[in-house]
Design brief:
Blueprint lengths: L7 H8 L25 H13 L5 H13 L32 H14 L6 H15 L19 H7 L7 H10 L4 H8 L6 E3 L22 H10 L11 E3 L11 H7 L6 H8 L5 H10 L1 H16 L45
Antiparallel strand pairs: 1-2
Length: about 350
Amino acid sequence: MGFTGVRMGAVWGAIFVVLGTISVSRAQLSPTFYNQTCPNVTAIVSSVIQSAFQTDIRIGASLIRLHFHDCFVQGCDASLLLNNSATIVSEQSAPANNNSIRGLDVVNNIKTALESACPNTVSCADILAIAANVSVTLASGQGWTVQLGRRDSLTANLSLATSNLPSPFFTLAQLKQNFSFQGLDTTDLVALSGAHTFGRAQCRFFDNRLYNFNNTGNPDPTLNTTLLATLRQLCPQSDVGANTNLTNLDLTTPNIFDNKYYSNLQQNDGLLNSDQVLFSTSGADTIAIVNNFSANQTAFFEAFAASIIKMGNINPLTGSQGEIRKQCNLVNGASSSSGLIMGGGVESQADDLVSSI
């Protein structure tokens, strides 16, 4: 999250322009890519994340979000991780990332451990893909076979980061258009939205549903009235300071990766507009998918795995493209020994989510 004093819905509505459909790359990624060069890569990533989980139960949701926010901007190439420099304008200052993205320190710790074990071998883009899988399994979800072999970008793209990431205020039509632009279909949309089965969100990204939904002067009629009362206590209209108060995305099992997100939607307990529209949009084809995932957790797990693998194949750099960064936040020519250099206020411990995922 990161908008201050500006409604995201209006901003995204103004700047989101579909330029054409991005086709998912058919680059030959492989789950065995590091078998010879860094055979313990997954164990190393898991160890660092497990350590982070001891003090930050929300880190899993944050790491999945990094993978998503990376892939939706010029492909899965770790461009999101680059800081401002003489030649880079960081994506971290985009509205969907500024004062919002979390877990950059954990990614840096993973990279440090991998550089010690397997120097100049594992890309930061692959770290994000592995970290997403590890985060799900640590939260009692079902993992998947991670495709590997991505390389890291030499550039970032603030403009695409500003325009390509979906808003929590989006309608279903806008969400479908946004995902289609990335080569992802309606099932992918509903499945990947299920990542909201854990994590948190700030009041300012759903309080429009509490008091003046769509300028009606009334709350969102699709919001469960019991939840409405609870959220109004958390996010009082008269208290601007409450904008950053946090609440769980999943009311039922907030730290577990399961299918309760979908049963919440059936009870009108979706927190964000971009959640609830999957079930409450009249006649929508997403309703049947929500019902299926709510009734069958295995179906959700399988669909989520297929969709996140598909997302991870969005335009990766492979072969001799890009580079293997020595530090995830800097291209190699700008590397230093100072570790992760945070841009001005780009990482906040206040929330997990701004986009629809």
